[in-house]
From TrEMBL:
Signal peptide: none annotated. Pfam families: RhoGAP. SUPFAM superfamilies: GTPase activation domain, GAP. Residues 17-41 have a biased composition (Low complexity). The keyword Aminoacyl-tRNA synthetase does not apply. Residues 17-55 are annotated as: Disordered. PROSITE patterns: RHOGAP. It comes from the Eukaryota. GO terms for biological process: signal transduction. This is Rho GTPase activating protein 6. The keyword Secreted does not apply. Keywords: GTPase activation. Gene3D superfamilies: Rho GTPase activation protein (1.10.555.10). The lineage of its organism: Eukaryota, Metazoa, Chordata, Craniata, Vertebrata.
Length: 208
């Protein structure tokens, strides 16, 4: 009987110790679960702080540029070397530039200039030789109606040149403005470095 009692006490002690360990383990798991649930959520793109590089401009605020900033960007764009500007060109069917200058250029001017640039070296008298008034008028009407007018090698280069001249001629105000026209002409009398600086300053004075 004594040995049986001792065995029973030993078994009871072991069961209590096991229950205590299980209870402690459950408490630890519950504590970890609560701390995990109370942990702050990871920052989302909306709540995370937005950082900008020093001197940078976010995409959202490009359209909010004031006149002075927009003109400064225009002057910097126009002062780029030809080869640097060529490296920055993107195909129209892939992406549109976020440059404010790009949005200000009418589509008819953009397409005409691209076509003329491709053919100017192979065509004699590109702005002097006559064109078809009927085709020029038809092209202008299609652009005015907002159609997607294709300008490719099938179009006569002299018609495109005449269309470009007509668009500039029909503008309510001259491209270089009457007030600044004489100043632009006089820049031709300056040496190269002074001429570049003068043209950049005159560009800043042009209306947006």
């Amino acid at each position: 009987p004594t040995e049986l009692m001792l065995s029973f006490l030993h078994l009871s002690s072991s069961l209590k110790r096991t229950n205590k360990e299980l209870s402690s383990s459950n408490s630890s798991l519950s504590s970890n679960s609560e701390s995990h649930n109370e942990s702050p959520l990871p920052s989302t793109p909306d709540t995370a702080p937005r950082t900008h590089r020093r001197g940078g401009v976010s995409v959202d605020c490009i359209t909010d540029l004031d006149d002075n900033q927009s003109r400064l960007l225009e002057a910097l764009q126009l002062s780029l070397p030809d080869e640097a500007a060529g490296n920055r060109k993107k195909p129209r069917d892939k992406k549109l530039s976020l440059n404010p200058i790009y949005r200000q250029v009418p589509r008819i001017v953009d397409l005409c200039c691209q076509h003329l640039e491709k053919n100017v070296l192979q065509t004699l008298g590109i702005f002097r030789v006559g064109s078809s008034k009927k085709r020029v008028r038809q092209l202008r009407e299609e652009f005015d109606q907002g159609w997607d007018v294709p300008i490719d090698q099938e179009q006569c280069v002299h018609d495109i040149a005449a269309l470009f001249k007509k668009f500039l001629r029909d503008m309510p105000d001259p491209l270089l403005t009457r007030e600044l026209y004489t100043a632009f002409i006089h820049t031709m009398l300056l040496d190269y470095s002074a001429q570049q600086s003068a043209i950049q300053l005159l560009v800043l004075l042009l209306p947006p």
